[in-house]
Amino acid sequence: AIYDLGILSGIKGAPSDGMPGARSICQGLEVLCSLLAYRKYML
Predict the structure, then answer these.
(1) How far apart are CA 3 and CA 36, in angstroms?
(2) How far apart are CA 3 and CA 22, in angstroms?
(3) Whole-number pLDDT of residue 15
(4) Phi and psi (nearest 5°) for 18?
(5) How do the domains of the chain map onto residue ranges?
(6) With contact defined as beta carbons under 8 Å apart, do 6 and 24 qualify?
(7) What share of the chain in percent tops pLDDT 70?
(8) Residues 17, 10: contact at Cβ < 8 Å?
(9) Residue 25 in contact with residue 4, Cβ under 8 Å?
(10) What is the pLDDT of residues 1-43, one digit of tens each?
(11) Stated pTM of the model
(12) Which of 5, 15, 16, 23 is within CB 3.0–4.6 Å of 28 for a Cys-Cys bond?
């Protein structure tokens, strides 16, 4: 799940990059919240 939040934040996900940091996780959570709010709005 942490890796997926990093992908949402825009990290490239190359094998040599390692796990996403705190900033990437926070940005990924913000994107996820926006997507969920949009989904709720559309339903």
Answers:
(1) 18
(2) 11
(3) 87
(4) 80, -170
(5) 2-42
(6) yes
(7) 100
(8) no
(9) no
(10) 999 999 999 999 898 989 999 999 999 999 999 999 999 888 8
(11) 0.82
(12) 5
Amino acid identity at 7: I
Q: How far apart are CA 10 and CA 17, in angstroms?
A: 13
SS3 of 1-43: the string is CHHHHHHHHCCCCCHHHCCCCHHHHHHHHHHHHHHHHHHHHHC
- CA dist 11 and 43 (Å) reads 30
The two three-digit tokens of residue 16, written as one number:
């040599």
19 closest CA partner among 31, 9, 30, 33: 9
Residue carrying structure tokens 């339903």: 43
